Amino acid sequence: MADFTRAIEIEPNDPYGVQWRADAALAKDNYEVAARDYDHLVRLTPNDPTAALRSGQMHFLRGDYERSAEVLGAALRQAPQNADLATWKFVALSRSGKDARVALKAALPAFDSTGWRKAVAEMVLGKRTFAQATAAAEAEARLSKPRLEEVYFVRAVELLVGGNRKEAEELLRSIMALGISASSYHRAAKAELARLGG
Fold it and tell me: What is d(CA 198, CA 51) in angstroms, rounded to the nearest whole number?
């Protein structure tokens, strides 16, 4: 990381150096540095939804759900068809104690009309069960583990917000057991379990 820091000192507005240090910080679970650098990257590349997604995710991992929702919401206004932004905004708003269903319903057009991600959104909106959303994720076998992580995480957030900590912790542990340690949902599950003392 020191090399990236030196590169940023030489050229502070080089988005590549900023992103590389943010990525390196993320790889070391240093969410404070990663959040700061991804925020800087958003300022340098305001039309890049991936930078905003990473920034929002880092604030979520730090437990700053309101800042996460703010960053993701601003990016979603620029890229309303981005289902990743919509999903993360939903979980951030939910964890900040707000009713995020209205925001999710407004973002529903961003979701593929028949895909697994729409099944997740419909689960939250009460149109599908958890089992149906899980089956939709499993049906797309090529990427079923990452998709299951998302289904499990969104459901775990719902359960936490609804006061069902035990089931939420079980789902968060299930994400950890899937073993995709570099994924955003794995990191988020790990951070939530740490905050819950589990």
Answer: 30
